[in-house]
Each structure stands twice: as structure tokens, then as C-alpha cells.
Write a structure and sequence with these properties.
A hairpin with a 2-residue loop joins β4 and β5. The protein starts with 15 loop residues before the first helix and ends with a helix. α2 crosses α9, α4 packs parallel to α5 and α10 runs parallel beside α12. It is α/β, with parallel strands linked by helices. The strands form 3 sheets. An 8-stranded mixed β-sheet has the order 2-9-8-7-6-3-4-5, sandwiched between helices. The structure holds 4'-deoxy-4'-aminopyridoxal-5'-phosphate. 4'-deoxy-4'-aminopyridoxal-5'-phosphate (PMP) binds next to α4. Homodimer. GO terms for molecular function: pyridoxal phosphate binding; transaminase activity. Its cofactor is pyridoxal 5'-phosphate.
Length: 394
Amino acid sequence: MKYQFANNIPESDEDPVGNILKVAGDPKVISFAGGLPAPELFPVEDLKKVTNEVYDESGRQALQYSIAAGYPELRKQIAKRMNRSGIACDIDNIMITTGSQQSIDLTAKLFVNPGDTVIVEQPTYLCALDVFRSYGAHMVGVPMDDDGMKMDALEKAVQDNPNTKFIYTVPSFQNPTGRTMPADRRQKMIEIADKYNVMILEDDPYGAIRFAGQDVAPVKTFEHDERVIYMSTFSKILAPGLRIGWIVAEKNLVKKFTLMKQTVDVHSDNLTQHIIAKYLEDFNIDDHIAKIRETYRRREGIMMDAIEKYFPKNAKYSHPEGGLFIWVEVPGVDTQTLFNTCIDHDVAFVPGEPFYADKVIPGTFRLNYSNMQDDKIVTGIERLGNAIKETISK
Ligand code: PMP
């Protein structure tokens, strides 16, 4: 059968990142390629306990169909957390999603016509690029420095693209760079969005995982007229397999999101929503997040020390104060060649190329430290350092 796919379905079945993860999945390889949270920190026993309570106390309700906006008790708990982070909202501002990946997809579904411009950080979260591409968006990348998106370049990009629908930003501990936008830049981003009347999509899965420095308020706290759609998730603060995230937006916009969501999956898994709501009621998730921060602080520190020891002196790298990733640039290195050499050395990373909407900066790659035991981080970075030196001298 020759299938007649819709216009924006990619012709190729190539999955370059999937292939990398497959190669990196060999047990003898020390892989810094994935973006997985540390599974040993998942609160398995606590979740087991609350799951049993949900079955005992409200099993029939939790197993029934529910409303697309999400379980009100869970939305209430999320609203409480959001207000504490400075985002003023109540439960009508919140819709539960099947993870932030769905939040990104629903936003594109609501706003992007083929040919509309979506402005993104350069580099950015590659599965967001895949979403925008699938709706036929014209993506424009804005260069970054150590403090995230450069605001003069952002303003120029918005000016040059009058059909811009929104700016997509991961302002805290960005995937893939680990960089964070300081408050003055967040404010400036709002000024630009106000001036040119564009929306902002603030994707914040990592903001709670700060292990150094001072908290920075979400971009949404700087807005004047509810132009920011904020999204976060339980994937990094509880467990990604639960597949529960949320959107915070203006109430009428949440109604539109809800209509869109109904067409996709009716509602997110109701049982899981009950389990998380019960968990938030019975346990202090901030105590749990503190353990995650502590572990990632230690692992990031170990990786950073090893990078300083084993990488060549011309290597540049980000210094994240939270999140899961360090971004490296080794000028003059072809990262695909480096990747192949690394596999010979039993170590892996993700090359930078797929994270760019356009204008790739060569020699860049992402390292993940959250999902690797401390001693293996040192061994892996030593191997990687050797592979870099070998690739440079070839
Ligand atoms: N946005 C960013 C920036 C991410 O890094 C990820 C996951 N790695 C997601 C969204 C998707 O998260 P979720 O598991 O909530 O779908």
C-alpha cells in the first residue's frame, strides 16, 4: 500500500536521536545521552501506599471517565504550588495534561497554522521542534549566550517575522544547555512580546530542580495581560512514567485548551491524577524534591570537576545551577565523528545538531548527569576526554 500521508508527516523514518540512544543503551557504554531522572529516587513505596488508599477510598470514581480539564483536587494542589512560585491563579486557570509534551502539542494545535512563525531558543528542546514542525510552523532560532536567549536578536526575529504566533522558551535550566535566563531578561522578553503583540510559551519542567544560586521568578509573573502560557510537569519532580503535567493560562484560553484536549485523549489518566493528588496531600513533595536537588547537585559537581580535569582547555561548557544537563562546545570537532570514537571508548552523549531549528553551531553536544552513578561519571568523562583528544588529533 502506498500511503497518502498528511502534508507535514516527515517522509523519512530516520530517528537520529533514537539511533543514538539505542547504541548508547549497550550496558558496557557509560551513557550521558539520555535525559532520564534518577530512578532510585522515585518514591515507589509512598506511591504504592497512596495508590492503595485511592483504590480503597475512591476506586470507583478514579476508574470512571472524568472531565478534560482534570481532577479538581489535583488542580487545587497545583494552583497552591503555582501561587507560591508567584503565579497568581486558581483552578480555572489550570488544565491537566498527559505531560508537558502534550501541553506543547496542544498549544501548537490551538495556534499554529502552516507557515506561522514560532520563535525558539537556539538550541532548544528537540521534541518541541518536532511538534512545531508537525504543524507546519516556520521556526526561527534566536542565538543564546550564558544567560539564555539574546534579547536584541529576539526583537529582530519578531520584527522580521510579523506572522510570529509565539516565542517558545525553556527559561530555567534549559534542555539542552542547562542555561537560565535572569530576571531582567525575562522582563525584557515580556516587553518585546507586549510591543509586538506575540504570546510566550514558557516550558518549565526543571525550575524546581535548582541546586545552586537564587530562584528566578517564572516569565509569567512579569506579564501584564495573560500573554504567557505556562507549563510544567511531574516528570522531573516525581516520575515521568506517570505522564502528568499541567498548563496555567487565562481562563477562557483554558476552556479552548480543554476542547482541544477532549479530541485528543478525552482526559489524562484519571487514576494517576487521583494518585498524585493523594500523594501531594499525604506527603511533602518539597522534601522529596530536596533529595532530587541534593543528588543532582552532587552529580553535577562531580561531572564538572571531571570535565575540568579531562577535557581539552579549549572546551567551553555551561555551568548549570539546576536541572539535568551540561552543554559542551569543543570548537573544530565534528560531533558525529566524536560520537563514533566515543562508542569505541564505551561512552556516549547526544550531538548538538538536532537541537537547532536552523544555523547549527558545530562541535556542540549535551551531557546528562542525573541518571549516572557518581563513580561512573568520572570514568565516563575521562573516556570522553580521551575520545575528544583522539578526534582532534586525527
Ligand atoms: N519540555 C522539556 C524542555 C523537556 O525537557 C521535556 C522532557 N524531557 C518535556 C517538555 C516533556 O516532558 P513530559 O515528560 O512532561 O512530557
